[in-house]
Design goal:
The structure is a single chain. By secondary structure, the chain is mainly α. It contains 6 helices and 5 strands; from the N terminus they run βααβααβααββ. It has a single domain (about 1-120), classed as 5'-nuclease (Rossmann fold, 3-Layer(aba) Sandwich). It is about 45% helix and about 10% strand.
């Protein structure tokens, strides 16, 4: 199955229900489009985050579209741009369609793409279940 950017962002953030679902996939092939990696890098605020994305991406097969898939992406962009589909989403959808694999996403931009199987692994509108972190210790006001 092919992963969309929003899934990978939440996976990197450790959203618990997604991590649990992802772990349940076992040995299923997970495909990460190169454009998703590029979108993840584009969202980085500093070099440390870029290093984290690169290390994270090394765990997946990176897939680049074929010429036919690029042509399909142009068709998708023309047909679905009014539904909110952008260039990267058109390429991601064309890659999933070309490989004949489901696309895991919580993005509605793909909802009208004919023949594309969508998997929504969790309810994006539900409150996030993020890993619990220890509360930072407050500095004591007492002197001495």
């Amino acid at each position: 199955m092919m992963m969309d950017t929003n899934i990978m962002i939440d996976l990197m953030r450790g959203r618990q229900e997604l991590v649990k679902w992802f772990d349940s996939l076992g040995e299923k092939e997970i495909i990460l489009p190169g454009f998703v990696v590029m979108e993840l890098i584009a969202g980085c605020r500093n070099d440390d985050e870029i290093v984290q994305v690169e290390a994270f991406a090394e765990n997946f097969d990176i897939y680049w579209p074929t010429k036919d898939e690029c042509e399909k992406a142009v068709d998708y962009l023309i047909k679905y741009r009014r539904d909110g589909m952008g260039v990267a989403d058109a390429l991601i959808a064309a890659c999933a369609a070309g490989r004949r694999v489901p696309l895991c996403t919580n993005d509605n931009d793909f909802r009208n793409v004919t023949g594309l199987k969508i998997i929504k692994p969790y309810d994006r509108n539900a409150p996030a279940q993020l890993p619990k972190r220890k509360a930072p210790r407050r500095k004591s006001n007492s002197k001495g």
